[in-house]
Amino acid sequence: xENKKQIAAIRDFIISxxxxxxxxxxLLKDILEDNNLSLDTEASLNTxxxxxxxxxxxxxxxxxxxxxxxxxxxxxxxxxxxxxxxxSKLVQWDRLKLTILANGKMMYKQISPIEREFVSWLIxxxxxxxxxxxEWKTYDLLTAAVTHFKWSIWDNVTIIxxxxxxxxxxxxxxxxxxx
Length: 179
Fold this sequence. Notes:
CATH 2.40.50.140; 3 domains; six-stranded antiparallel β-sheet; 28% helix
């Protein structure tokens, strides 16, 4: 009986924490908008070192992975297939190479991964988005990664995040089996 009370209390603490985080995000957004400020990490990212070149009939472009997209020197975002992102365990700020073949086929390759760290916590779902709240931060997860491996809410997972940069997205490393 004591375990049920503890489980209910933990669940209530998590729900309360999620609501607090949601309210803090809304308050931060309002303050930023009122003061014409932005925390947009993509806008502040220096992409001048990225290159583009041709090899025979193929076009090769270097990119920075931002989450579901790649950011190029022109500051435009281009989509990355979710299955590639999740299977390759791409992390925000990884450097990628896109080869566009003469026939239009696109081939993605990770060429310079950012330094990573691994954190474990529970999967939650907020407004149709899977997330992990770890170390006082909320990280979005690719739905394709969660559904492909048939993970569900409250599963304990190990995520991969950049070690030295802020991130809003995490890649999933593995699930930690329930006891």
